[in-house]
Amino acid sequence: MAVLEKEREFKFTVDDFNFLRKLSNEHSGIQVPDERFDMFYSRLSKRVRKLGLSNFKEYCQYLTHHSDNEFTEFINAITTNLTAFFRENHHFEYLRDVVIPEVILRNKASRQIKIWSAGCSTGEEPYSLAITLKENVPADWDVKILATDLDTNVLQTALEGVYTEDRISGISEERLKRWFMRGKSAQLGQVKVRTEIQQLIQFKQFNLLKEWPMKCHFDFIFCRNVLIYFDRETKTILANRYNEMLSSRSWLFIGHSESLNQLSSDFSLVACTTYRKNK
Ligand SMILES: C[S@@+](CC[C@H](N)C(=O)[O-])C[C@H]1O[C@@H](n2cnc3c(N)ncnc32)[C@H](O)[C@@H]1O
User: Is the CB of residue 76 below 6 angstroms from any atom belonging to ligand 1?
Assistant: First the structure.
């Protein structure tokens, strides 16, 4: 790997980069290509500065010796958390038109729906799910959404449910009035998700590569724009585990540039990046 030496505040060598990307891969499964060298520098130099260290070699040593405190900060710094309300909106339309009507029929005895948003980032995805469910499921049904992520910072934002107005620019005025509160005075320019939406969701910190403590089966799982960061073997393992976590003939939604093709024969493609269990 050839890296041009740039004028940098902190010395960052290829060895430092290799050490850090190996560490992140072992813990999170995230694959870090050579092109992320500058991204690693810009995100982690904030940590080097904050800790009062002189260069990245010292940061690598610090991580080795103070891993308990710094490891979470390190992982939070290197995750990619891009998300949006009603991102890839065709999935939410498919839920409204196909999935929810079918789940309502088949779960009519229990009147329960269980959903998992795996890799939920700052919460826009599970809140969009909660809004879609609120709008399309009878009010007396028990809807539960588990929303998980590895990154503790994004989960804190998700839990608070407060966003700047530019984050909600694509949402209709009707939906905004119904499901969000606009901030006044000190909170001007911000919106907060209404409590009745938040109450459907349980946020949890959770590494997809480790044990999955859930006992229940889900009616559908959203794991969108997460698999893309993993190697093929990890993707295959995750596809198999999602298959086990879904109830019979249930759905798995993945991101726009992802595919289960050649990863699992347990699912069939039923709509754009929307898979359904064969059994
Ligand atoms: C690009 S965001 C996707 C957010 C949302 N699903 C969407 O499509 O808008 C990917 C998320 O996956 C999370 N992630 C990455 N590796 C993970 C792991 N091993 N376990 C759990 N979450 C992980 C990241 O922290 C990040 O918030």
Answer: no
Is the CB of residue 207 below 6 angstroms from any atom belonging to ligand 1?
Answer: yes
CA of 11 to the centre of ligand 1 (A): 29
For residue 4, pLDDT over 60 is answered with no
**Within its chain, how far is the Cα of 170 from the centroid?**
20
Residue with tokens 């038109």: 97
Q: Tell me the DSSP string of 106-163.
A: HTTTTTEEEEEEES-TTTHHHHHHHHHHHHHS-TTSEEEEEEEES-HHHHHHHHHTEE
Please choose, from the candidates 124, 116, 91, the residue with its C-alpha nearest in 3D space to the C-alpha of residue 238.
116
pLDDT band at 68 (very low <50, low <70, confident <90, very high): confident
Give nearest CA residue, ligand 1 atom 12: 119
Buried b (16+ CB within 10 A) or exposed e, 92-105: bebbeeebbeebee
CA of 225 to the centre of ligand 1 (A): 7
Q: Is the pTM of this model over 0.90?
A: yes
274 Cα–ligand 1 center, Å: 18
Is the Cβ atom of 126 under 6 angstroms away from ligand 1?
no
Instruction: Please state the rounded mean pLDDT for residues 247-255.
Output: 98
253, 90 Cβ separation under 8 angstroms: no
Please tell me the distance from the alpha carbon of residue 84 to that of residue 216, in angstroms, as a whole number.
28
Cβ–ligand 1 distance for 83 under 6 Å, the answer yes
Whether 178 is catalytic is: no
Q: In b/e form, how buried is each residue of 208-240, taking b as 16+ CB within 10 angstroms? A: bbeebeeeeebbbbbbbbbbebbeeebbbebbe
